[in-house]
């Protein structure tokens, strides 16, 4: 199947001391100036040179301190413990680039709808329509404690609340008509009040009344990223997401999930062709197969067992220090997991056990290692072969590329793999527009088009 030039490419970033791979900070080529704007601007310029559609940042509102209910292990080993505010980072990167899309994670559980709407609408204006919001419901009790709550809400309840949160945010973003501002100094009329809608929302979770203060943005509204992969999470993603971040173990599984999710998008009343599905992957590229294998061996040697235990405890909201490696989880313990249930479900399926052990969680999830995502390893040609196969066999619409070390993993990919993908015609040579929606091949968002979805 030919899908010429349509492959989406997204960089998966962290505003912290390491990439998504916690061992990356131990890599001898990783830059250490992650507390400076130059670090992020250097990455942004490289991604723009490589014609990436977007850089998006994952985030948590707490460091991984659930293992042993102590932060010492995470801090000592540098396990994703520095977490900077993302809007400042996006602003710095946006001012160093012209076309690169930029996305940030903000939680529907611990922020207010008006605040999120204003932050992202303002940034979308300041960066010329290049902004995306990665919508999350957060994961664990540590985040709840940092935000003044006693505990993290139950999984499905968070998504029920998030549906209403989305209605309010999108209503704010669509409050101003595109032609509301007249700006006629001669008549003294700034804007037409009949084209500015006042919100009067009263629902199960929120009561929000007032008139939004930011006019409609260059792309209509920011792009919405979503990564829901549990049953309830998929329903949420199908209703709201423009770009869906997924994790597949392999190509065959990806084709199945891709087809099922696109059908779910259609069932929600949306056009599946206007939703991009992109799996997370690593890429380790060398000028030869042997060189790539040597690079991979070094990268894999950087992981420590404590990395996976700390990150599993964080993402599942369960202290993995409380069980022995071969102790099975009880039905009650599995049901009580309030964090990322997709990982729990993946481990149950992968182990073939109704009650997997802690060792099963570590080995099958790959958390804290480069086994967490598919890792394309080899020459530029062999990596392009795999990416093209995934793309053209309808397992995905593009990729979310995680980094094994910073910024070298992206520099290698841009220098070696991107030209090969471009030569084959599956990846663009130039940006097609100025806004993120244009570059993703998505239309400018029409006012209140989201009201077609059942979730609304």
Automatic annotation (TrEMBL):
Domain of life where this protein originates: Bacteria
Keywords, ordered alphabetically: Flavoprotein, FMN, Monooxygenase, Oxidoreductase
Record-linked SUPFAM superfamilies: Bacterial luciferase-like
Organism: Sediminicoccus rosea
Record CDD domains: Nitrilotriacetate_monoxgenase (cd01095)
Family to which the UniProt record says this protein belongs: Belongs to the NtaA/SnaA/DszA monooxygenase family.
Taxonomic placement: Bacteria, Pseudomonadati, Pseudomonadota, Alphaproteobacteria, Acetobacterales
NCBIfam families per record: FMN_nitrolo
Protein name: LLM class flavin-dependent oxidoreductase
GO molecular function, one term: oxidoreductase activity
A Pfam family: Bac_luciferase
Residues covered by the Luciferase-like domain: 30-392
Enzyme Commission no: 1.-.-.-
Keyword Flavoprotein: yes
